[in-house]
Amino acid sequence: MNNDLLYLATELCLCSVEDLLDPALEKKILMKKEILDELQAKEILRQATRGLNYLHQNNFIHRNIKPNNFLIQDVNKTGGSSCRFVVKITDFRLTRKRDPSTKEFLSGSAASQGWEAPESRNQEKELSTKLDVFILGCFYHYVLIALSKNGDNNGKSRHPFGDNEAQRVPNIQNLNYSVYKDKPPFNPENKDEEEVTKLIKLMLKFKEDERPTLQKVLDSSYYNPAEDYKLYEDYQSPGLCVIFNQQVFRFEKKEP
């Protein structure tokens, strides 16, 4: 016990997202197929975003977003539930609590090398949740590249700012660097991947005030169906509908 430290215990998990997407570890992740069949790319990203957004709503900034800090847990080993696997966020050693009423500035290690925002090393910058948004955008690219049906990717994860760590940091800090300046990295025939490419471009904006909040990311058309439920678009609360589908009616004849 140490009064100067806060200890956090996390559940035993199956693997990290980094391990899950590493082709070299395919035989060591025993339930890889089951995990990917249930979660797929979108659900991995949705759960990761919701977990990080929960921290932001409680004024915490994680600052250490990377693939091995998202873990996969088997929450229902019997398979009797509709949701068997979930994504957990971990490693809070760089996490800072932000007081919205005061200005706080970056200090110390603001992120892991290569998984950082352009402002991560600038200690004159005000502490902001938008730092996490940029790094999560890199995580989005990393996951989608591995799971995209685009054959050019060969099922291998890649960082959007380069596989070489020595080049990655200068690219992140280069205002003129464009992640998707050439051809689309994902399957151009997939509407979902077209939508998420637009979303990643916003998350990876060099200027932090141009990046969306994670709530806006979750409210985007990538996660919310654009064509379904249009009846409810103009209503905050559509109300309650009770439908009775009775096919057999019994009539009792009463004596006069």
Short synopsis of the structure:
Helix content is 29%, strand content 6%. The chain is mostly helical and 256 residues long. The protein has one domain: Transferase(Phosphotransferase) domain 1 (Transferase(Phosphotransferase), domain 1), CATH 1.10.510.10.
What brief labels describe this structure?
Transferase(Phosphotransferase), domain 1; 3-stranded antiparallel beta sheet; two-stranded antiparallel ribbon; 6 helices; globular; 6% strand; 256 residues; single chain
How would you sum up this structure, described in words?
The protein is mainly alpha-helical and 256 residues long. It has one domain: Orthogonal Bundle (Transferase(Phosphotransferase), domain 1). 29% of the residues lie in helices and 6% in strands. It is built from six helices and five strands; from the N terminus they run βααββββαααα. The strands form two sheets. The protein has a three-stranded antiparallel beta sheet with strand order 1-3-4. The longest helix has 26 residues. The protein is globular and about 95 Å long. The relative contact order is 0.12. About 3% of the residues have low confidence.
Integer count of domains: 1
Mean pLDDT over all positions: 81
What percentage of residues falls in helices of 4 or more residues? 25-40%
List the quaternary state of the chains: single chain
**What is the number of E strands?**
5
Strand-and-helix sequence, N→C? EHHEEEEHHHH
Broad structural category = mainly alpha
Could you outline the blueprint of secondary structure elements for this entry?
Blueprint: E1 15-16, H1 17-20, H2 32-57, E2 60-61, E3 70-74, E4 85-89, E5 96-97, H3 130-147, H4 165-172, H5 191-203, H6 214-218
Antiparallel strand pairs: 1-3, 2-5, 3-4
Helix pairs in contact: 2-3, 3-5
